[in-house]
Amino acid sequence: MTKTAFLGLGHYVPSKVVTNDDLAQMFDTSDEWIQQRTGIKERRYIEESGIGPSDLAVPAVQMACKNAGIEVSDIDAIIFATLSPDFNFPGSGCFLGDKLGLPGVPALDVRNQCSGFLYGLQIADAWIKCGMYKRVALVGGEVHSTALDFSDEGRDVTVLFGDGAACAILGPIEEGNRGVIDVEVHADGSGAKDLWLEGPASAYKPRITHEMIDNKTVHPSMNGRHVFRWATSKMPEVSRSVLERNNVAIEDLDWVIPHQANKRINEFVAQKLEVAPEKVIHNIEKYGNTTAASIPLALSEAIQDGRVKEGDLVLLPTFGSGFTWGAALVRL
Ligand code: UT7
After folding, report:
1. What are the φ/ψ torsions at residue 14 (nearest 5 degrees)?
2. Helical packing angle, 263-273 and 224-245, nearest 10°
3. Residue 313 pLDDT level (bands cut at 50, 70, 90)
4. Which is the most buried residue in 45, 129, 244, 285, by most CB within 10 A?
5. What phi and psi values does residue 13 have, to the nearest 5 degrees?
6. Which residues pair with 180 in a beta bridge?
């Protein structure tokens, strides 16, 4: 039976490092508060205006293709998961396809925030299993820094997010036990406004006003404690569901690579799942929360530094704005 294999991973982050102390120069916060509450030490921001998620994705895709042993021209479909598309329309996938020199290759944008990579993985898995495409570039890419509120009012959200991109090249595999075993995703829009970016909005006429800028509607806002509670409940729940459905015990897992939203959230999740802390991979201290890019970025780094190896059994749980959440079980 055809399965979907991770053929190669790649990632890219901009060179500009922004430390907690740098943020403390701009608004009322401290390195101590940020590290204690989130585990974050620094994050990356684009170096200058004009760099979008599709630009960050180009080197990530090139690296993933190299690691997969394919040419960029072999890609026959793009899925681009992002909550911060380069422009309102068209989607970042179209910009990326053009920048990679892939005219005619279909490009689908997925707008499922921190769960975007898993939603994209479920789609890619279905495409590949049914024989529609053979080399899918599944990208998570974000530029958050251009939307953040660098004043005291925005500090709870601004300290969390960073820019970056990562890509998985996915393709069919006929033999062996490697491949995507299962992907389960969910959504509950009753929490949509607990973590959102309201404007500019097509629901308003005009879509943007000076008042919206003055009221800070153009920056993301969050009900942090509420999101925290949901994340620490839904991530273990969906993880257990995927594991049980596939008769996999926690002890069978080689690694858990959760979405990197807050190190404390992931410590809670690990505790609830009773998974050994040393099996849980995190890089939030270096990059903050890169939403759709966070899981493939952590996976790509862990493969690059030799921790995660071919054949390892990996659980990928996530939770984010929407609310959306999910978990994937993959034999790499
Ligand atoms: O990708 C998924 C989406 N995001 C998440 O999963 C994030 C979920 N939420 C969280 O991670 C946490 O709620 C935060 C890290 C955002 C906040 O941590 P918390 O422990 O829930 O803090 P809090 O919101 O309850 O605020 C505690 C205090 C407040 O001051 P008072 O009212 O106790 O005087 C805040 O005003 O910390 C204050 N505070 C800050 N202080 C320094 C909030 N943000 C900051 C800040 N620096 N950046």
Report:
1. -65, 160
2. 40
3. very high
4. 45
5. -125, 145
6. 330
C-alpha 236 to ligand 1 mean position (Å): 22
Tokens of 71: 């040419």
One fold for both 3-173 and 179-331? yes
Say if CB 54 and CB 80 are below 8 A apart.
Answer: yes
Q: How far apart (Å, rounded) are the C-alpha atoms in residues 22 and 249?
A: 43
Average pLDDT in the 107-133 region?
98
Atom of ligand 1 nearest to the CA of 261: 1
Instruction: Name which residue sits closest to atom 47 of ligand 1, judged by CA.
Output: 29
Instruction: Find tokens 């998974």 and name the residue.
Output: 275
DSSP string, 217-243: TTS-EE-HHHHHHHHHHHHHHHHHHHH
Instruction: Please choose, from the candidates 10, 16, 21, the residue with its C-alpha nearest in 3D space to the C-alpha of residue 62.
Output: 10
* Edge-to-edge strands, sheet with 136-142: 3-12, 164-173, 136-142, 77-81, 107-110
* Cα distance between residue 97 and residue 77, in whole Å: 9
Tell me, yes or no, if 215 is annotated catalytic.
no
pLDDT, averaged across the chain? 98
Rounded Cα–Cα distance for residues 60 and 10 (Å)? 5
Looking at domain 179-331, its CATH architecture is 3-Layer(aba) Sandwich (3.40)
Q: Is the peptide bond before 90 cis (omega within 30 degrees of 0)?
A: yes
Query: Which of the four CATH numbers 3.40.47.10, 3.40.640.10, 3.40.50.300, 3.40.630.30 does domain 3-173 have?
Result: 3.40.47.10
pLDDT digits 0-9 by tens, 186-196: 999 999 999 99
In whole angstroms, what is the distance from residue 287 CA to residue 236 CA? Answer: 23
Q: Which helix (H) or strand (E) holds 272?
A: helix 263-273
Say if ligand 1 is within 6 A of residue 235 CB: no
As a whole number, mean pLDDT of residues 202-231 equals 97
| pTM exceeds 0.85 for this model | yes
Tens digits of per-residue pLDDT, 77-110?
999 999 999 999 999 999 999 999 999 999 999 9
